[in-house]
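The material for today's practical consists of a large collection of protein records. Backbone structure tokens are a discrete shorthand for how the chain folds in space. An example says more than a description, so a record of this kind follows:
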Amino acid sequence: MDINDFIEKFAACLHHTPSPAIGPDTEFKKLDEWSSIFALIVIAMVDTDYHKVLTAEDIRSSKTLSDLFTLIQSK
């Protein structure tokens, strides 16, 4: 698992934000598409693709995609 793969999978979940606009320092909760539903999509993606359990608290405590990736790696 590397951060570029994670960012690519995260970006694939988005419908209106272009992939090149997404990077490790992206503050994902500031994206126009971010919502509680999108948080559930990300939780499901992490479970399916990485076999890790991501919680709502994990998302709340993360600011950037890099933060989220580091947290997933630590699980």
Q: What stands out?
A: The mean pLDDT is 92. The first helix runs from residue 3 to 12. The chain has one domain: 3-74. The domain at 3-74 is CATH 1.10.1200.10 (Non-ribosomal Peptide Synthetase Peptidyl Carrier Protein; Chain A).
